Amino acid sequence: MAKVHTVVLVRHGESEYNRDNIFTGWCDPDLTAKGQEEAKDAGKILQEYGFQFDVAYTSVLKRAIKTLYLIQEELDCLWIPVTKTWRLNERHYGKLQGKNKDETIKKYGREQVQLWRRSFKVCPPPLDEKDEHWSGNDKRYSGLSFVPTGESIEEASKRSLPFWHKHIVPALKSGKRPLICGHANTLGSLIKNLDPSSKIDLSDLSLPNALPLVLELDESFLPSQCQFLQHPSGGKLHKKRNCNS
Amino acid sequence: MEACHKLVLLRHGESNYTRDNLFCGFGNDADLSDLGEKEAAVAGQRMLEAGLSFDIAFTSVLKRAVKTLYLVQEELDCHWLPVVKTWRLNERHYGALQGLSKTETAKKYGEQQVKIWRRSYDVRPPPLDKDDSRFCGNIAPYRDFDPTIIPVCESLKDTVERMLPAWHDVIAPDVKAGKRVLIVAHGNSLRGLMKYLKQLSDQEIIRLEIPQGLPLVIELDEDLHPVRDYYLASEEDVKVAKTKVGVKDNVN
């Protein structure tokens, strides 16, 4: 039987910007009360399914860090080492960061905004150093030689993939069970990057808030299967939305 | 010598075990009590008011310390800080006294014996049997450890000796490199660090009390020798906090 590795990925719970329909990117809004409950639920679901973790990875954005903490609390594994990296940050949305999505559509047109949001190679309009959301002065990025002014999906996925190979694959090789708590675009594009033959159907890159995604990998660390874990309903069989195409 | 580094130590807030007057220690992963959570938040506020910020934090693998750190980070809005967790910063291991109340301990072993354990530097409490359900070798995160390093009991001296490699190998290099370090840990592991930094005698360290929830700033020179240290709290606050310490959860 082919050796299987399992990684669990979770998008953070609802943030204040999600609630207010604002482009987030590298902005650092907090979880809403609903987002905190979603995070706890994610932890409860993982516990129901008997998941245990040895190591966790997340971004340097609090909505993901706090979601991870709340999951760890439910699983009683606050002791596990947690690595935080800007490489798992959400895609940088440039000048759109902090802007209301509907107002942006009104201003630029639906087609342009769709292009910025969903096209693989198109960058959003760049942020400049004078903008209040400029990350260049943020201490957490002081180690970066270059702070993005905006990223295409391609660029965001290019900077998250090295982290997977440098940290997560070695952890899997040493028998560790990782939990990754991140963001919609970067988690989605990470899976797509690992899946060259597109066995996995994730046509909508926007992963639901705080719904654990179990990714199984073959012995070459290529995705073989993935499933969202749904909340058990009324004690009956747990429904799993299978995303294999 | 001139101070050029600032190190901040924080003993975690009240745990459920301290609240209930039970010996906690290495092997009990007690949660913070409601008061303990408040103490952690207040500690964070004190650090914020003092204008402190950090580049890295160290803590133990026990949730009362991990949670205290998280609550401090919430106040300082620095959840992004890298956090390193090490069992070497865990609380002292109280052996077979784990989980017992002060009354039960005195009943079982006699007041005189308890006094010896409390006032000595190198006398160990009775060891835990490896078959005891309280032995932590069977639980995460110690399951994969070399079994010879998992304590079955510790004197204060033992705690200091197993804590110091964390300082020398991991924390001190970061302080020397100019990183602003926060350590959130436990009464005895922090006493161990204080003993080393301030070159305290075995007798002096027994009398040193580190109150829960009050940030302790240690200013160090370029060779990491202490220049001065102070709590981010009024003298009155420190006095009140010290009345809680040493009575309930420290065998010293």
TrEMBL record, chain A:
Q: Which UniProt keywords apply?
A: Glycolysis, Isomerase
Q: Name one GO molecular function term.
A: phosphoglycerate mutase activity
Please give the catalytic activity noted in the UniProt record. Answer: (2R)-2-phosphoglycerate = (2R)-3-phosphoglycerate; (2R)-3-phospho-glyceroyl phosphate = (2R)-2,3-bisphosphoglycerate + H(+)
Residues annotated to bind substrate? 11-18, 24-25, 63, 90-93, 101, 117-118
Superkingdom assignment: Eukaryota
Question: What family does the database annotate?
Answer: Belongs to the phosphoglycerate mutase family. BPG-dependent PGAM subfamily.
Report the protein name in the record: Phosphoglycerate mutase
Q: What is the lineage of its organism?
A: Eukaryota, Metazoa, Spiralia, Lophotrochozoa, Mollusca
UniProtKB/TrEMBL annotation, chain B:
Q: Which GO terms describe its molecular function?
A: phosphoglycerate mutase activity
Question: Where substrate is bound, by residue?
Answer: 64, 91-94, 102, 118-119, 187-188
Q: Where is this site: Transition state stabilizer?
A: 186
Enzyme nomenclature, EC number: 5.4.2.11
Entry-linked Pfam families: His_Phos_1
Q: Does the keyword Isomerase apply?
A: yes
Query: Which reaction equation describes what this protein catalyses?
Result: (2R)-2-phosphoglycerate = (2R)-3-phosphoglycerate
Q: What keywords were assigned to this record?
A: Glycolysis, Isomerase
Gene Ontology biological process: glycolytic process
The positions flagged as active site in the entry are: 12 (tele-phosphohistidine intermediate), 91 (proton donor/acceptor)
Give the protein family. Belongs to the phosphoglycerate mutase family. BPG-dependent PGAM subfamily.
Q: What is this protein called?
A: phosphoglycerate mutase (2,3-diphosphoglycerate-dependent)
Classification from the root reads: Eukaryota, Metazoa, Spiralia, Lophotrochozoa, Mollusca
